[in-house]
Design goal:
- It is a single chain.
- The chain is α/β, with parallel strands linked by helices.
- 28% of the residues lie in helices and 16% in strands.
- The protein contains 15 helices and 21 strands.
- The strands form 6 sheets. Strands 3-2-1-9-10-20 form a 6-stranded mixed β-sheet, with helices on both faces.
- The radius of gyration is 24 Å and the shape is globular.
- The two termini are 19 Å apart.
Length: 581
């Protein structure tokens, strides 16, 4: 469809975005919505399936090393003291002199109320099927923030009016936040298909089950949230906004889910970094994506991703939340309750909300009175009013990773990383025996692909290293003054000046660079990449890089064919021209 130069942008978005679904999958949350919408649904990327196996493995992704070694514990304490000296607060074991309040906390009602956000109590999920026609609306049905939940009293009254559990039937699966609020005593197994930026394949979670769970979660969102029935799906197109951590085989499996299982008519793949540039109306920037479990850095020049600058860090917002719990327990400010962020998903959900409400980066002692909740199986949630201390220490773990002690997740099988075709670059022109077409589900010849850089350095060092890898002083100066923070953890108060200060000190003295700047995001940092994907899809009028369902099912990937499936960095400059006009 051709539009005159006088076309109103809002009209273009309304018309062209009504049949485009933008999918931005992450390790902890999935952002999904129609391109014409201002904000997407932000839903926990997990599913709980009913199980009859005993003993049940409640969280199939928790095949990890959750035990902190003595060496890691000592390094963590040293990192705390380094951070304490920078923030001008007492060291870890230093007693605070002239303290006017007790450090030992339980249920406390004497402290004045704070102006911070009040934390609502999370209620247990009703795991039984409803006997009434499905017309209820959950707290995830509104694609924006600030949603409220029903009070426990209201939920109790509803349950009392319903039949007893012996007369009711268990739900076969539960998706989204409801899956995180299921008591451990119920016969459900929690699964997270994506962890630490990769498909969560392990000996306890086979590949086929991971893909089936992805399909089920996405299908549930499309039907229950976006109200797009299966029979009408072929009239819609999908945009996959993929994190840079995913490998080619993983991207292809997701494309097969979108085109074969979900039955979209066509689809295209865009990188999160490039989509973030479009989402904020930029052309050149250093994108710092701080997700729940992975932080990645990549540079974009004039709308083209520079793949050699990509660096992944194996920590994110959830690690900050666990560090918050460790800090409070060390200072003996945490109530005497059994909080376990690893085995109890509802506890991690509570810690994430506390982090978002109270954690910040600033000098001096940062304390707040907060409501902490305890969730014991078969009991109503308990509330504990507590004074939290050292709230500026956990976010500093972004710069001092040993403070976070990331959990060690087992890597996927090596076969995931051996793939000759790069979905995010030009197709390699190689001659293979037996023809040039290989469907994605067949065996692949083994070739060395682009390595994924994963470092254990801090955020400031990663940003500096990524920008300096460009090798051109003019571009480096431009990138150091065009840093962009996106992702959920990017909303931490005080993070921008902290990044600017530490990046400036991390630049080697022999580099002729003396100015750094983080650009303010035009929208919610957590949704920038999703919004950029929507813009790319709407402005990509020619759709030369889109993959059609019939082509994907019949032919898979064609090597050396005239049509190449390329990344958004190869889109025509027309899209950037529209964006900057």
């Amino acid at each position: 469809m051709d539009y005159p130069k006088t076309a109103v942008p809002s009209n273009i978005f309304t018309e062209r975005g009504s049949n485009i679904v933008v999918i931005n999958p992450g390790s902890a949350n999935i952002r999904i919505g129609l391109a014409q919408h201002d904000t997407p649904f932000n839903i926990p990327h997990c599913i709980s399936r009913r199980t009859s196996q005993l003993p049940k493995r409640n969280a199939q992704d928790q095949t990890l090393n959750s035990q902190v070694t003595t060496a890691q514990h000592m390094e963590r304490e040293r990192a705390y003291d380094i951070v304490a000296s920078l923030l001008r607060i007492p060291f870890l074991d230093e007693e605070v002199a002239n303290s006017s309040y007790p450090r030992k906390m339980g249920r406390i009602d004497a402290y004045p109320p704070q102006n911070n956000m009040k934390e609502p109590v999370l209620t247990w999920t009703d795991v039984f099927e409803k006997n009434v026609p499905h017309s209820s609306t959950t707290e995830e049905d509104v694609p924006n923030e600030g949603n409220t939940s029903e009070s426990p009293t209201l939920k109790e009254s509803k349950i009392k009016d319903e039949p007893t559990s012996s007369e009711r039937k268990y739900r076969e699966y539960i998706c989204g936040e409801e899956a995180l609020r299921i008591p451990l005593t119920e016969p459900y197994c929690l699964r997270r298909p994506i962890r630490r930026g990769h498909l969560n394949v392990s000996q306890y979670y086979p590949t086929q089950q991971v893909l089936e769970d992805l399909h089920t979660i996405w299908e549930w969102i499309l039907v229950e949230k976006l109200h797009i029935p299966h029979r009408e799906r072929n009239m819609y197109s999908a945009i996959l906004v993929i994190p840079e951590t995913f490998d080619n085989r993983e991207i292809k499996e997701m494309l097969s889910i979108v085109l074969c299982d979900l039955r979209f008519g066509s689809a295209v793949v865009h990188q999160e970094g490039l989509a973030a540039v479009f989402g904020n109306g930029l052309s050149t920037a250093c994108i710092v994506n701080m997700g729940a479990q992975v932080t990645s850095v990549i540079c974009v020049e004039d709308g083209v991703v520079l793949p050699t600058t990509q660096i992944s860090l194996r920590f994110g917002g959830e690690d900050i939340s666990r560090c918050l719990l460790w800090t409070q327990r060390h200072h003996q400010t945490w109530p005497p309750i059994r909080t376990d962020a690893l085995s109890k998903p509802v506890d991690l959900l509570m810690l994430n909300r506390l982090k978002e409400s109270y954690c910040q980066i600033k000098e001096g002692e940062v304390e707040a009175v907060a409501m902490v909740h305890s969730y014991e199986d078969g009991m109503q949630p308990g509330s504990h009013k507590t004074r939290l201390t050292a709230l500026n220490v956990p976010p500093m773990g972004l710069f001092y990773p040993m403070l976070l002690v990331p959990d060690v997740y087992p890597p996927p099988p090596r076969s995931w990383f051996n793939d000759y075709d790069d979905m995010l670059e030009d197709t390699w022109h190689m001659d293979f025996p037996g023809g040039g077409a290989y469907p994605m589900w067949e065996s692949y010849p083994v070739f060395q692909t682009k390595p994924k850089k994963e470092d254990v350095i801090g955020l400031a060092e990663a940003i500096t290293k990524s920008i300096l890898l460009t090798g051109r002083i003019e571009l480096q100066r431009k990138l150091f003054c065009s840093m962009q923070l996106i992702g959920g953890a990017a909303s931490i108060y005080g993070l921008i000046p902290a990044v600017e200060e530490r990046v400036l000190h991390a630049i080697p003295s022999h580099e002729a660079i003396d100015t750094v700047e983080v650009l303010q995001s035009r929208t919610n940092p957590a949704f920038v990449s999703w919004k950029g994907g929507a813009i790319l899809g709407i402005l990509d009028i020619s759709r030369e890089a889109w993959i059609h369902r019939e082509d994907w099912i019949k032919n898979g990937i064609h090597i050396g064919s005239g049509r190449k499936y390329k990344d958004s960095c190869y889109l025509q400059a027309q899209a950037m021209c529209y964006l900057n006009s």
